[in-house]
Amino acid sequence: MELELVPNKKYRLTRHMYLFPEQEVSPEVNDYLKIGAVVTYLKSGELAEDNQARMPWVYVRSENQKKADMGKGQEGWCFSHHLRAVEDEEAPV
């Protein structure tokens, strides 16, 4: 099942991930986020392959910057395939 990405919606990471400044895996990173971290989806980018899965790069903003000493901000590119929707906790029962 493919994840529907909605701008400004919150998603939870299903693995540890780096946020990159560009749509490529490189030694330069904006932030490092641990599994379970919450990010806000901002936009999609190019298609990429990771472990034989095709998915778009996504640009996200992290809710908590884990490594303040990196100093490059809390936004960056990561793989959409490692995001899961966070349920709206204020939804009526």
Would you kindly provide a written description of the structure presented here, covering whatever features stand out?
The protein is mainly beta and 93 residues long. It has one domain: SH3 type barrels. Helices cover 0% and strands 44% of the residues. The protein has no helices and seven strands. The protein has strands at 10-13, 17-19, 31-33, 38-50, 53-62, 75-79, 83-85. The chain has a five-stranded antiparallel β-sheet, with no helix packed on it. A two-stranded antiparallel ribbon has the order 2-3. The radius of gyration is 13 Å and the shape is globular. Mean pLDDT is 82; it is low at 88-93.
Rg, alpha carbons: 13 Å
Q: What's the total count of β strands?
A: 7
Major β-sheet strand ordering: 6-5-4-1-7
Helix segment tally = 0
How many separate domains?
Answer: 1
- Approximately how much beta-strand content do the residues carry? 35-45%
CATH architecture call = Roll
Helix and strand element order:
EEEEEEE
Q: Supply the helix-strand structural class.
A: mainly beta
CATH topology-level fold name: SH3 type barrels
Can you summarize the main beta sheet?
Answer: 5 strands, antiparallel
Mean pLDDT: 82
The level 1 CATH classification is: Mainly Beta
Any low-confidence stretches, pLDDT <50, length ≥5? 88-93
Tertiary shape: globular
> Which percent bin holds the helix content?
under 10%
Query: Between the first and last Cα atoms, what is the distance in angstroms?
Result: 25 Å
